[in-house]
Every structure is written in structure tokens, then in C-alpha cells.
Amino acid sequence: MNIVILDDYQDAVRKLQCAAKLDAYAAKVYTNTVKGIGQLSVRLKDADVIVLIRERSQISRQLIEKLPKLKLISQTGRVGGHIDVTACTERGVAVAEGSGSPQAPAELTWALIMAAMRRLPQYISNLKHGAWQQSGLKSASMPPNFGMGSVLKGKTLCIWGYGRIGQLVARYGQAFGMQVVIWGREASCAKARSDGFQVAQNRHEFFAAADVLSVHLRLNEDTQGLIKLEDLSRMKPTALFVNTSRAELVEADALLAALNRGRPGLAAIDVFESEPPLQGHALLRLENCICTPHIGYVEQESYESYFGQAFDNVVSYINGNPTNIVNPGALQVRR
Fold first, then answer.
1. What is the pTM of this model?
2. Hey, which of 38, 89, 107, 307 has its CA 20 to 30 A from 170?
3. Same domain, yes or no, for 41 and 122?
4. CA angle 266, 236, 209 (to 5 degrees)
5. According to the model, what pLDDT value does residue 140 have?
6. Which of 113, 106, 52 is CA-nearest to residue 84?
């Protein structure tokens, strides 16, 4: 069995303890990424098994049709829209998935909130250039003393989406003395109320009340482009917008336009519509936007868990006992 592991940007997979699970097999790890179907098909032409790192590569019908040897796709974490599961089933390609922990993305969300509210990235950058106690956020269009930053205690933390990650972030906010307000589907709001959190009366109030607004939603047909420029423009000029979920939850260019208008005054994001983003991406150039390279799940414990499950699924499949297959019909397709 030829096993290919894609998009290991940090060359970390081979150094994981769980990598020993594949010692008996031929496994090739790629540490760079290619996006075109032609390039990917060349890279994967001899692969019996592909191991995917989250959504870093798109596995489309066109690509699958160019990979006649492919038998299994083992996904780190849950399967999402980046894999054409229907096409996989039709071609007899099994797709296995694992699970993930909310801890790492929730902690990164909180790290971004704290760093942004105290203007740490700006202070650190300016200190390296010899400027003492200067954040650089001094535009005339900004509120007075905006560059100084602010504490979290007493501020309003608005969270859209009360799943596993949103629940952790809500408890972090509560521990820091923030007023936590939830918005989302009816079931999420009911759960938030039962946990003792306030639920916004409506969407307008939710955006207008926020000192910090953090988004924790799954990306699907219903949520793509859900957050509009109109929503962001209701936020305070002192407010912080945080997105560690998916960039596509916000309509195209809305965040850029909103930040340029000064409502909200600041953003912290870990996700981009196309990843890696092109050098010189507009949001990367804004002084009031803190950007990280989609590292919500990128830390050692999460990697051991993600890849441990993915490699277990590979070994189980090779041994004739497929596990965690999301499209069992693929196992019945003659090849």
C-alpha cells in the first residue's frame, strides 16, 4: 500500500509518536502544497491511501477520477465539504474520519482576544523597531487612545455559535468577568440559557452590543456568507471581531470594508478564504487586523490525537477491518 500524507507545512508528522503506526508501510509526506488538479493528480497517481490534514487540499470529483489506484482517504478530524464524498462512493473510494478536541481552537481564540485587546502584536512589533510603549494605532479616524488597549473585565463578549468551542470561549469570558451574550440556532440559544448565559434579543442587538464578537459556526450552505457588511457596520468603533472558524462565514470583502470604515475598530482572524493567502493579502496589510496562519488546531497534543486516529483508520482498512467510514457504500463498489 502506497500512503501519501499531504500538506504537512511544518514537517511535523514524521516526528509524532503516532507516526510509528505506519512504520510497516510505505508512506510519503509532502511538506509543501499544490492546488491545481493536474499537479495534485501527478503527486497522488500511485497513492492507494491519502491522509489529509484538515481542509488543506480539495478532493474534487475531477481529481478522484484521475486516481484509479486510490482506495482510502483518511481524514484528520471530521470530513467536510472539501471532499466530494459522493464521487468517492461512486468510485469505490472509502472515506474515514476522526474527531477533534475543542480545546486548542478555543484557547487560540482566547489568546487572540487577549493579544488584540491589549494591542500586544503592535506593541511588540514597534518595540523591535525601537519605539517604547507605542502601539502605532494612532489614526485620526480611530477613537481617542484606541492604541492603548483595554481590559476584558466588564466588557461584553458576544459569541455566535454555542457548540463545543463556543461553550469553552463563553466560560473563559465568564472567568474574566465579561458579560457573555450568545446568538445562534434555537437549540444553541436554549442550551446557553440553561447554562446561565444571556441570549441576544435579535441579530441587530447582538452586533451592536459587542465589545468582542467571536464566531464559532460550521461552514455549510446555510452559513456561507452569513455575516454581512451591514452586520459588521453595527459594531462599535472600539469593538473587536474574531474569526477562528472559517473565513467564508463572512461575505466576501465585507470584513476588509468594515475595518477600513472603522466599525469594528479591530479584527483578529486565523482563517482565510484561500489558504495559504497570497503575499500582500489586503487583510495582512491592515494595522488594525491581527492575522495568524490557521493554527487553531496546530499544536502537539492535537496533532497526536488527529493523526493517531487517522493512522488507526489506515491500518484498520489495510487489515480488512475498515473503521469510521462515512460512506460505507464505497466498500461495496467493485473496482
1. 0.93
2. 307
3. no
4. 120
5. 75
6. 52
Instruction: Examine the domain organization and report whether 226 and 164 are in the same domain.
Output: yes
pLDDT confidence of residue 165: 98
Whether 73 and 96 have beta carbons less than 8 Å apart is answered as: yes
**Starting at the edge strand that comes first in sequence, how are the strands of the sheet with 94-96 ordered?**
26-29, 2-5, 49-52, 72-75, 94-96
Q: Where in the sequence is the domain holding 159, given as residue range(s)?
A: 103-291
Do 200 and 279 fall within a single domain?
yes
Q: Which three cell numbers stand for residue 237?
A: 468603533
Please give the span between the terminal C-alpha atoms of the chain, in angstroms, as a whole number. 16
User: Structural domain tally of the chain?
Assistant: 2
**What is residue 269's three-state secondary structure?**
strand
Exposure of 278 in the CB half-sphere (CA atoms within 13 A) = 3
Runs of H (alpha helix) within 148-241: 164-175, 186-194, 203-209, 229-232
Residues 6 or more apart whose Cβ sits within 8 Å of residue 272: 247, 281, 283, 294
pLDDT at 21: 98
Residues 137 and 286 in one domain: yes
How many beta carbons lie within 10 A of that of residue 126, not counting itself? 18
CA distances in angstroms from 332 to 33, 91, 271, 329, 335, listed in the order given = 32, 10, 37, 5, 9
Closest CA to 172 of 124, 221, 117, 224: 117
Residues 143 and 255 occupy one common structural domain = yes
Write out pLDDT tens, residues 32-44.
999 889 999 999 9
Torsion 30-105-81-22 (CA) sign = positive
Cα–Cα distance between 83 and 291 in angstroms, integer? 26
- DSSP labels, 52-75: E-TTSS-B-HHHHTT-TT--EEEE
Three-state DSSP class for residue 187: helix
- pLDDT tens digits, 260-300: 999 999 999 999 999 999 999 999 999 999 999 999 999 99
- Are 45 and 164 found together in one domain? no
pLDDT tens by residue, 171-186: 999 999 999 999 999 9
